[in-house]
Design goal:
226 residues; Rossmann fold; alpha/beta
């Protein structure tokens, strides 16, 4: 269910909007009802619903103020404005602030249903894109350690024809915040003589811990270089 907030300064209208439309069948749940835009703005500081259905003219803060707030703060929230015929220019201004749609008063149930059916499709598509991006990022996160290992192995063994292009491409993937053209890079060749004796007699922890400490040292060093 997508979260919906309703606001109108006339009680009969806001209660009608809540009760006359079968929101759940459309895929929406009414999260809150307000009588003024200022209440919405306070609500948005804590919770961001999926859609706001609001009257365009209210006492302390208008629906236009709400649309502007959502637009300026880049909130992932759609705004639908309710306006009268004489408020058409305000509604157009609201659309410039990113309002998804506007409904002329008095809006009947069929108009509201049609509008929110379209919004539901948009929200579903956006959610599908987010899920795909999340899945892609998860796959990338899993691949990064393997790419890092292969990257440093190739550097050490020197098995790369075009080293500059290869290094630039791999760094852009593995360390996007690092600019290879403006950063000092170095290669550490660490040799431990009598490695097994070092692990058993000198190093007080296991082999994995040694490797992890070395990795952490390099990460800290690189974080200060970026």
């Amino acid at each position: 269910m997508y979260k919906l907030v309703i606001a109108d300064d006339e009680k009969i209208i806001r209660m009608g909007l809540k009760n006359m439309v079968k929101w759940e069948s459309l895929g929406f749940e009414v999260e809150a009802i307000f009588s003024d835009g200022r209440e919405i703005l306070e609500f948005l500081e804590e919770i961001v619903p999926d859609v706001i259905l609001t009257d365009i003219k209210m006492v302390h803060a208008s629906g236009l103020d709400v649309a502007q707030y959502v637009y300026e703060h880049k909130l992932p929230c759609k705004v639908v404005l309710l306006s009268g015929y004489q408020e058409f220019e305000l509604a157009v201004k609201g659309m410039r602030f990113g309002a998804t749609n506007y409904l002329l008063k008095p809006a009947n149930v069929s108009q509201i249903v049609e509008t929110f059916e379209k919004i539901k499709i948009q929200l579903d598509q956006e959610m599908e894109l987010r899920e795909k991006e999340k899945s892609r990022q998860e796959r990338m996160d899993e691949a990064i350690p393997l790419l890092e290992e292969r990257f440093f192995t190739d550097l050490i063994l020197g098995g790369v024809a075009d080293r500059k292009q290869y290094i630039s491409t791999r760094i852009n993937i593995l360390y996007p915040r690092l600019n290879p053209e403006k950063s000092d890079c170095f290669l550490v060749d660490l040799q431990i003589r009598s490695y097994e004796k070092f692990i058993s007699d000198v190093w007080q922890y296991n082999q994995d811990q040694l490797e992890e400490n070395l990795k952490n040292f390099l990460k800290i060093f690189l974080s200060h270089c970026v």
